[in-house]
Amino acid sequence: MLVENQYYSYNYGDLPQGCQLCVKGEKLVCFVTGVCPRQCYFCPVSDEKFGKDVIFANERKVKGEQDLLLEANLMRARGAGMTGGDPLARMERTVSYIKLLKQNYGASFHIHLYTSLNLVSKEKLELLHAAGLDEIRFHLDLDSDALWARVTLARSFPWGIGVELPLLPTKEKEIMNIIDFIQDKVSFLVLNELEVADNKQSHLLTMGFRTKDELSYGVEGSVECGLRLIRYVEEKGYSLCIHLCTARLKDKIQLGNRFKREALGMKKPFDIVDEEGLLTRGALYLPDLAPGFGYRKKLAECNKEEFVKRLLVLLPEIKSKCHLREEDCVIDEEKPRILISSHKIKPLQKKFRTLGLLPAVVKEYPTADQLEIEVDIFS
């Protein structure tokens, strides 16, 4: 009987190499573009990215190659997953990023890529292989086999070849048909627990799908469908490794481990990192750009340089009146504020307020967007 593994997922045979690094939080997520030739009704891509030619490295918006490398360095990445949209929609960019990562981190830096079959050609696969791609994962159309044969084009190259599919409980028979087709053509299959996404593209809820409980985005019956499909492979005797990747793995294991790695890479000497990888730190805000209603919108629309200039003017006075050393306070240019030890906020709160600043203790993600989980402002 198949049992849940240590990552809260299920594997039949060995985990693909890309998955082995992913569950440890060692894979950089390189979102190459939101452009895609398909319009899947279950697509989880956010409205910020869907259909838009934008680039992200984890949560960091990429404006140049230095942003991609910065994020990889912060999390001490040992590999990357090239995703989208469809990376093949922007081949030149995808190839250049693969080469960039290999050149900077070496041949052992493992890179896998997700793509539909719509844009696949032998010429494009040759370019990807020559750039250094280690593993390719195809998303086959569940409702049409017209392009399935393109999977065989990848067999001309010595890399890992797999198929990755969403576990729609209503498409169990269709997934079985895909398994029958790919079982002697690829080495592994990844089955993803279906999740309801908070975006405009996903229509799962309006189509009658339901989450399995109030605290999960996982769709009812999705994991059970995956377990039946694994039994089907076992009964057929197919030599196909399968990873049933659950929502819990992604949330608790993959993201948690990545946050821990990122926290160690981006923490200030005075920051406190908890067991989940979240940062606790003190922060001094200008009153007109402090957490509260509309804070994220203000951050996106404000002239950050002007706020940083105001903080730079205040910084010498803060150090003098509060007896802070150079290393005790740092200006955060991304979220214009001054970062200090959380232990200094309460005893110095009155002095900070007399200087026109709002002192706070903040718990936030160690990501480029530094999303706040808790903000305790001393007013």
What are the SSEs and their pairings?
Elements: E1 10-12, H1 17-22, E2 27-33, E3 56-57, E4 60-61, H2 65-74, E5 79-84, H3 91-105, E6 110-116, H4 122-131, E7 135-139, E8 160-167, H5 172-182, E9 188-193, H6 222-236, E10 241-245, H7 247-266, E11 272-273, E12 279-285, H8 295-301, H9 304-322, E13 329-332, E14 337-340, H10 345-354, E15 358-364, E16 372-377
Parallel strand pairs: 2-5, 5-6, 6-7, 7-8, 8-9, 9-10
Antiparallel strand pairs: 1-10, 2-3, 3-4, 11-12, 12-14, 12-15, 13-14, 15-16
Helix pairs in contact: 3-4, 5-6
Commentary on this structure:
It is a single chain. By secondary structure, this protein is α/β, with parallel strands linked by helices. It has two domains: 10-264, Alpha-Beta Barrel (TIM Barrel), CATH 3.20.20; 268-377, no CATH class. Helices cover 32% and strands 21% of the residues. The strands form two sheets. A ten-stranded mixed beta sheet has the order 1-10-9-8-7-6-5-2-3-4. The chain is elongated, with a radius of gyration of 23 Å. 39% of the residues are buried.
Widest beta sheet: strand line-up: 1-10-9-8-7-6-5-2-3-4
CATH homology group of the largest domain: Aldolase class I
Q: Please give the domain count.
A: 2
Structural class: alpha/beta
Number of helices: 10
Order of helices and strands: EHEEEHEHEHEEHEHEHEEHHEEHEE
> Taking all residues together, what is the mean pLDDT?
96
Tell me the Rg in angstroms: 23 Å
Q: Could you tell me how far the N terminus lies from the C terminus, measured between alpha carbons in angstroms? A: 58 Å
